[in-house]
Specification:
Blueprint: E1 23-26, E2 36-41, H1 51-64, E3 74-78, H2 82-93, E4 97-102, H3 108-117, E5 120-123, H4 135-148, E6 152-153, H5 161-177, E7 184-188, H6 193-204, E8 210-216, E9 250-254, H7 256-270, H8 276-288, E10 297-302, H9 316-323, H10 328-331
Parallel strand pairs: 2-10, 3-4, 3-6, 4-5, 7-8, 7-10, 8-9
Antiparallel strand pairs: 1-2
Helix pairs in contact: 1-2, 1-5, 2-3, 5-6, 7-8
Bound molecules: pyridoxal-5'-phosphate (PLP).
Length: 336
């Protein structure tokens, strides 16, 4: 997904602005870190997250193969956030009707963004269990819509190889920026598209990168006991088909509080307003700092931006209500 820049430096349409996101050095987050820390800012994709890459990969791949016909087909997908927004963007541009299956946990802001791009919303209301998961209900609705709508196509982000393939490019950009020396990669996991694609690139090019999967406490991806999770984005109530044994060298399962603390530390020190999984990645790195060797290149893949979490992670009232007064956890001078 190299950006198609014309000779005068002008991009050919908004989808050409997806990818080639900045890699920035972090010097203030953990100033005593012996390792060099870098952040890959996926929030700077035009749809606001790394899921733009997956959405384009899946939709344009399906158009190329003839499975999807612009002007005729309808895309149906279950997503409460970033992938839905990425799909809404690419479908709008290619005149494809898009029906996004959402649930009551989808934030009002994400619903408004989806509508603004022209997506149609199909809301499920009955949770699958007392942990307030809606994945099974959403997938049932997807199957109903596929039966009802003629020429409906389901990208199925949890199992679509094009989701992972699109993310190989993310890793290529990182590797090129660091001349092939990427010692550690911290990557949040949901569908496992990102980690799968990065791991494939690393294996194909013989890089010696240690991949740290950053999952959510209570997610079923790397564990089998699920529990209620407050922060959306990473973590899943199922083990996705894109998961495979060995794609991560180590796994860290981070709590909702870790997400909040990581986000608040990152914005306080580096002025980067990240989303929930960004906070999980930051907290995961902090826990591993003592073992990161001096001079190691350590990349934090940061999936999305904080504007979508202003009513939760960046709301003092919400944080007080859910966790009590934990401000000291990001206000104290860091010892790292
Ligand atoms: C904010 C955020 N972080 C992390 C992830 C996980 O990425 P992946 O689905 O590629 O595993 C997602 C997926 O939607 C996400 O929206």
């Amino acid at each position: 997904m190299r950006s198609a820049i014309t000779r005068d430096g002008v991009l050919d349409g908004v989808l050409s602005a997806v990818g080639s996101t900045p890699l920035v050095r972090l010097t203030r987050l953990f100033p005593r870190s012996q390792a060099r820390l870098y952040a890959k800012l996926e929030a700077l994709n035009p749809g606001g997250s790394g899921k733009d890459r997956a959405a384009i990969g899946m939709v344009l791949g399906a158009i190329e193969s003839g499975e999807l016909v612009p002007g005729e087909s309808t895309v149906v997908e279950s997503s409460s956030g970033n992938l839905g927004i990425g799909l809404a963007q690419v479908c709008r541009l290619h005149d494809i009707r898009f029906v996004c299956v959402v649930d009551p946990k989808t934030t009002a802001q994400n619903l408004a963004i989806l509508r603004a791009y022209g997506a149609e919303l199909s809301m499920v209301t009955e949770p699958d269990n007392d942990m307030n998961d809606f994945l099974a209900a959403r997938l049932r609705r997807v199957r109903e819509l596929l039966r009802e709508i003629p020429s409906a196509v389901w990208p199925n982000q949890y199992a679509n190889a094009r989701n992972a393939l699109a993310q190989q490019e993310t890793m290529r950009e990182i590797a090129e920026a660091l001349d092939g020396r990427v010692d550690y990669l911290f990557v949040a996991t949901g569908t496992c598209g990102t980690i799968h694609g990065c791991a494939d690139f690393i294996a194909k090019h013989g890089l010696s990168t240690h991949i740290v999967a950053v999952d959510a406490e209570g997610s079923a991806i790397f564990g089998d006991v699920t529990c209620r999770r407050l922060v959306p984005g990473h973590g899943a109530a199922i083990r996705p088909a894109l998961y495979h044994e060995g794609m991560a060298h180590s796994v860290m399962r981070m709590t909702d509080q870790d997400c909040v603390v990581g986000c608040r530390k990152l914005v306080a020190t580096e002025a980067i307003l990240g989303g929930g999984s960004t906070g999980a990645v930051v907290s995961a790195v902090e826990q591993r700092l003592p073992e990161l060797p001096a001079g190691a290149n350590c990349v934090l893949l940061l999936p999305d931006r904080g504007e979508r979490y202003l009513d939760t992670i960046y709301s003092d009232e919400w944080v007080d209500e859910k966790f009590g007064d934990i401000r000291h956890l990001w206000k104290e001078n860091t010892t790292c």
